[in-house]
Design goal:
Strand content: under 5%
Structural class: mainly alpha
Shape: elongated
Helix content: over 70%
Radius of gyration: 17 Å
Mean pLDDT: 94
Number of strands: 0
Number of domains: 1
Largest sheet: none
């Protein structure tokens, strides 16, 4: 009994690869900045550092997420050659955005 066909496994592989690459690019190195700078700061500076990093990430990536969500059909056609439906693209994009906070 198969739950996923071989084509579904291929589409799942494309989606997971996209999430991994897009999360690294969209993260802008902010997670690395956080890990390097966090312990060199006082408590007040730590709170400011966290707020600044979240602000920078959100202010850059939230408009990109909204634009990508509005163009999910184009993303499905151009990047995935219609192998992945737009209904899969939407959670994929949201997961890519939220991965930064994990």
């Amino acid at each position: 009994m198969r739950i996923l066909t071989p084509a579904d496994y291929g589409a799942l592989s494309l989606v997971t690869s996209f999430i991994a690459i897009a999360s690294a690019v969209c993260g802008l190195g902010l997670r690395q900045l956080f890990t390097l700078e966090y312990f060199h700061q006082t408590d007040d500076q730590r709170n400011q550092l966290i707020q600044r990093i979240i602000f920078v990430y959100t202010s850059i990536n939230l408009p990109l997420l909204l634009y990508a969500l509005a163009n999910s059909r184009t993303i499905a056609r151009v990047l995935f050659f219609d192998e992945v439906t737009p209904t899969v693209i939407v959670p994929m994009l949201v997961l890519t955005f939220l991965y930064f906070f994990a």
